[in-house]
Every structure is written in C-alpha cells, then in structure tokens.
Amino acid sequence: MIRFVALLSCIGVIYGRAPLNHAVHNERRTERVVGGWDAPPNTWRWQVSLQYDSYNSNDYYHICGGTLIAAYYVMTAAHCILSPEARYYRVVTGEYNLYEYDGSEQFKSVEKIIIHPGWTGDLGNGNDIAVLKLKTPIYDNGYLQIADLPYPGQVLPHDFTCYLTGWGLLATGGSTPAILQEAPIPVVEHSVCSSPEWWGSLAKKTMVCAGGDGKTAGCQGDSGGPLSCLTDGAWRVHGVVSYGPAADCNMFRKPTVFTRVSSFIEWLYSVM
Question: Which residues constitute the signal peptide according to the record (predicted)?
C-alpha cells in the first residue's frame, strides 16, 4: 500500500484554469511543448471546451476538454467535475480561439452530469469518465461533428499514431494557448505501459497510454479531451485524457494516460 501511494503521488491531473479535413500538414510549424502546434480551423470538430463558472456569475473559464458524442451529450473525464451542480458548467462546440469569438461557437448549458459509478476519485483506479447532458441540442452549423467511437473492446496496436488535441498548457507551469493545439502521439501497448519502469500497476487495461518519449504529452487543461485515431476508415475517439506525471507533463516513459473508450461503450449508450 505504501508503494502504491508513493507511485500515485507522481500522477498529475491534467486539467487547469485556462482562459476535418484531417489532412497531413506538411508545412513548417512552430513547435510547441508536448510536441504540438496550432490546429487548422474546423478540423477536430468533435472537440469541445468544458467551461466552469465557480461563482454562478456568468463568468466562465476553460477547465477541460470534451468530445461531442450526440446532439445532447458530451463525454469528458470524471475528474473534470469540480462540482455536482450542473448550473456551474457550459459546453462550447466549434471553439477555436479561446480568447476571441470566432462565429463558429455554440454555447450550451448543462442539464445533468452523469459520472461513471466506478469512479472513486482515485485516478489510479480508472473509470475516469463522465457524460454531460445538455439542456438544448447542438445543431449542425458546419463547424461541428458528432464523434465516431470505437468498437466495444477494441485495442490499438503498439506505436499506432493518434492525435491529441486541446488547450492545455504548453509547458509544465507554462502558458495557455489561445488556439486549439494538435499533436501526433504514439500508442504504448498495455504490456509496456504497465511495466515497472513505465506506469506499472497504475496502468489498467481500461486505459490507453500514449507518448512517453519526453516530447509529446497532454498537460493541464487537456483533461477530458479526445484521443482521435484513424481506424477502420474513420476518425474515432479512442481515449479521454485522464492523467500524467505531476513533476513534468512530458516525462520520458511516463506517457499521457487516457480512459479507454472501447471499455465503456455499453455504459455510454446506457446513459444516453
């Protein structure tokens, strides 16, 4: 138990306050921390910004990412739920620049919060997934898309390249980007990620590990957002950003850990 607690102290919750064509982009980019760069507009159209108003004063700020999975529903991480009161949250679809009105956004109030019954508040135990039911449905304005999800139990092979997107910090303790970031990130299979020199027993089979090269990773503000992977001819959201190392977001052999969506398909459809 003492060893487990010591390991768990290395986990960092990857959320924090922060104000497709899916073609391969070959033009020169300005590299950002976690190995990412500005995403082209109107690409990751299922990505949402989960925003919070702690004083119920209509002053919202970004806390987490999320994924649009139906007209009334958004998937995010359970640890992103700072309060059980739905009135403190809103979801923004079509968001691109957090600090400007792009004309593509839809702002939706949350009616109900549904947290997975297996969530205990302990990231190492997994089940870090929640669903938000919106008060009114999202409508198709050309800037959004309902995400495709993987097949139940689907597991990605080692080194399979997916994409991490979000408005997370560009460095541990660093600045927050205004523009949505994207970064290719390789999957680390469970047998590797659960080995002692990686995440050990904290990596469960209901999780997906990706990164760990010391270059590409999620960081504070990315939690709850999607891990998007081109599988079976379609972009599917295979992961929900859950945790990473507390000391430094992009530590070698400490990849970003995602809730594996394919392990929760039945639960998702049961609550929608």
Answer: 1-16
